[in-house]
Automatic annotation (TrEMBL):
UniProt-recorded Gene Ontology molecular function terms: phosphoglycolate phosphatase activity
Family: Belongs to the HAD-like hydrolase superfamily. CbbY/CbbZ/Gph/YieH family.
Keyword terms, alphabetized: Hydrolase, Magnesium
PANTHER family: PHOSPHOGLYCOLATE PHOSPHATASE (PTHR43434)
GO biological process per UniProt: DNA repair
Cellular component GO terms, alphabetical: cytosol
Classification via Gene3D superfamilies: Putative phosphatase, domain 2 (1.10.150.240)
Xref: SUPFAM superfamilies: HAD-like (SSF56784)
Protein name stated in the entry: Phosphoglycolate phosphatase
Domain of life: Bacteria
């Protein structure tokens, strides 16, 4: 009896192993944040959030962006605005935007490791 007779395909996750997708991911995250008029994080920061899937990436990006915006508004003497839309709804919207933008930038933002 061959253990592999029912296998119809094999998939390999090369992201982070052979392929550096961080630049494309960071660009898509920043584009999504910008679309929601949130502070952009930059590649160096986004790289620290990568590793647990896109949903967690969006949660991390939104948490940081909301805190950053609150700090900026406080410095300007303005009240916070992030209670207007629940974080869960913002994460859903951010994820949809991220998916769209990542589809646009993934190819030019992904590189083979040397």
């Amino acid at each position: 009896m061959n253990k592999f007779e029912d296998i119809r395909g094999v998939a390999f996750d090369l992201d982070g192993t052979l392929v550096d997708s961080a630049p494309g991911l960071a660009a898509a995250v920043d584009m999504a944040l910008y679309a929601l008029e949130l502070p952009v994080a930059g590649e160096e920061r986004v790289i620290t959030w990568i590793g647990n899937g896109a949903d967690v990436l969006m949660e991390r990006a939104l948490t940081w962006a909301r805190q950053e915006r609150a700090t900026q508004r406080k410095t300007m003497g303005k009240p916070p605005v992030d209670d207007d839309i629940p974080a869960e709804e913002q994460v859903r919207i951010l994820r949809k935007l991220f998916d769209r933008y990542y589809g646009e930038v993934a190819e030019e933002g992904t590189f083979l490791f040397p």
